[in-house]
């Protein structure tokens, strides 16, 4: 099994963002709830009602999609290799998280999961893969077999986030929040996940603890496939679900609470995203 590089290789720029990015629906590239139009009508309501009519892409519009073609998954892998190589990681271990013999035609990156791709206009700017525990195993079980085995013994339904790559700092905080929330929806609502695991560079572990409430589950070790240090972090998806329900959609308090959860989606948006994600994945 190939090992994904530490997940947070590209998060250092997120705390430097100066201007709040636009809030956008991730499936149909339509404006979300952060503003009103000239007539005073909520863009949230209009975007949800007319999403199917808003498929043209503007240069400043963020969107998140499922990589459901070979070409899209190849683009995601190229972005991962590019960004990991730029950070000095070996890139052969970042190409995929599953052995060739267990990869599915549906999703090369994860036989039991999904790869998300993020666009700014028509430019690919981010990717994140969600894996679900299966006989094919998890990427993190290679470096942390005991920790993963312990969760399995407790009856946990484990999911993992791997192969995160973000190209540039523009809109990075909003982009990360959108990708993570869509990935949470897939892991929790569509796959019934109870526990989320990530391997991150130790330098970025504090970001995950502070912004998403992760806790450290495993000691620092060296990921030999990418020649970089990593620590194992875990998050109860029930807790994430509660935080999203409490804070999601309240962009105005995001900076005050130093958390990504307020940049998440509102309940009515989550239901629509889950439906579209289920159809696409």
- Main β-sheet, in a few words? 7 strands, mixed
Give me the Rg, rounded. 18 Å
- Give the tally of structural domains: 1
Contiguous runs where pLDDT drops below 50 for at least 5 residues: 1-6, 8-59, 96-109
| DSSP E strands, number | 9
CATH topology: Aminopeptidase
Shape type: globular
Helix content: 25-40%
CATH architecture: 3-Layer(aba) Sandwich
- Overall pLDDT: 75
By CATH, the superfamily comes out as Gcn5-related N-acetyltransferase (GNAT)
The ordered string of helix (H) and strand (E) elements is: EEHEHEEHEHEHEEHHH
Strand order of the largest sheet: 3-4-5-6-7-9-8
User: What is the top-level CATH class?
Assistant: Alpha Beta
- Given the structure, what is the number of helices? 8
How many angstroms separate the termini?
23 Å
Backbone structural class: alpha+beta
Strand content: 15-25%
Give a written overview of the molecule.
This is N-acyl amino acid synthase FeeM catalytic core domain-containing protein. The chain has 281 residues and is of the alpha+beta class. It has a single domain, classed as Aminopeptidase (3-Layer(aba) Sandwich). The chain is built from eight helices and nine strands. The strands form two sheets. Strands 3-4-5-6-7-9-8 form a seven-stranded mixed sheet, sandwiched between helices. It has a two-stranded antiparallel sheet with strand order 1-2. The longest helix has 19 residues, at 172-190.
